[in-house]
From TrEMBL:
<dbReference type="GO" id="GO:0051539">
    <property type="term" value="F:4 iron, 4 sulfur cluster binding"/>
</dbReference>
<dbReference type="InterPro" id="IPR007197">
    <property type="entry name" value="rSAM"/>
</dbReference>
<comment type="similarity">
    <text>Belongs to the organic radical-activating enzymes family.</text>
</comment>
<dbReference type="Pfam" id="PF13353">
    <property type="entry name" value="Fer4_12"/>
</dbReference>
<keyword id="KW-0560">Oxidoreductase</keyword>
<dbReference type="InterPro" id="IPR013785">
    <property type="entry name" value="Aldolase_TIM"/>
</dbReference>
<keyword id="KW-0479">Metal-binding</keyword>
<dbReference type="GO" id="GO:0046872">
    <property type="term" value="F:metal ion binding"/>
</dbReference>
<dbReference type="InterPro" id="IPR058240">
    <property type="entry name" value="rSAM_sf"/>
</dbReference>
<keyword id="KW-0004">4Fe-4S</keyword>
<protein>
    <recommendedName>
        <fullName>Anaerobic ribonucleoside-triphosphate reductase-activating protein</fullName>
        <ecNumber>1.97.1.-</ecNumber>
    </recommendedName>
</protein>
<keyword id="KW-0411">Iron-sulfur</keyword>
<dbReference type="InterPro" id="IPR012837">
    <property type="entry name" value="NrdG"/>
</dbReference>
<dbReference type="InterPro" id="IPR034457">
    <property type="entry name" value="Organic_radical-activating"/>
</dbReference>
<dbReference type="GO" id="GO:0043365">
    <property type="term" value="F:[formate-C-acetyltransferase]-activating enzyme activity"/>
</dbReference>
<keyword id="KW-0408">Iron</keyword>
<dbReference type="GO" id="GO:0004748">
    <property type="term" value="F:ribonucleoside-diphosphate reductase activity, thioredoxin disulfide as acceptor"/>
</dbReference>
Length: 181
């Protein structure tokens, strides 16, 4: 599917946010600010956030919202940003704006986790915007949710096919490196 690079953010994204959840402790390690983008074309059976599959759901992503998110991320004790959805890699305009400003403001003092239906290998061979977003990512929870492989006690993922990839170590080693929890 993604080898054809058919799901380009510029063709689908309405630059909307399904939800913003500051200061939570469920979307990755530590205290996080979580942005759920609107829109996903994977249509996974049993998706836990079905409403966010619509690119028109939620509120427009604005500079004011972006500034609020960046300010919240700066609070003491916040470990980082989590991008979920919907599909962040089908919303690269929104996600790239946010992660670039996060890195400008905080450098590497805050980490970036992204959940995606794409696998790490697919993203490494995807469109330039997807590869650019991946370059800002520290940890990628990859792979589409598969209802038949659902396991409720998996850390940070829903089905056994999904992996938690340490993107930083993967880039250094030249091969996929799984994150140790």
């Amino acid at each position: 599917m993604s080898k054809n690079k058919q799901f380009l953010a510029e063709d689908f994204s309405c630059q909307r946010i399904a939800s913003y959840q500051p200061f939570n402790a469920v979307d990755g390690e530590g205290i996080r600010c979580s942005v759920y983008v609107s829109g996903c074309l994977f249509n996974c059976k049993g998706c836990y956030n079905k409403v966010a599959q619509s690119f028109k759901y939620g509120e427009l992503y604005t500079e004011a919202l972006e500034e609020k998110i960046l300010t919240d991320i700066g609070h003491e004790g916040v470990q980082g940003l989590s991008l979920l959805g919907g599909e962040p890699f089908m919303n690269t305009q929104v996600c790239l704006s946010l992660v670039k400003k996060l890195r400008e403001r905080y450098g590497l003092t805050r980490d970036i986790w992204i959940w995606s239906g794409y696998t790490y290998d697919e993203l490494c061979n995807e469109s330039e915007d997807k590869q650019e977003l991946l370059s800002y990512c520290d940890i990628l929870v990859d792979g589409q949710f598969i209802q038949e492989l659902f396991k409720p006690n998996l850390a940070y993922r829903g089905s056994l096919n999904q992996k938690i990839v340490d993107v930083v170590k993967s880039k250094i080693s030249g091969e996929e490196v799984l994150y140790s929890i």
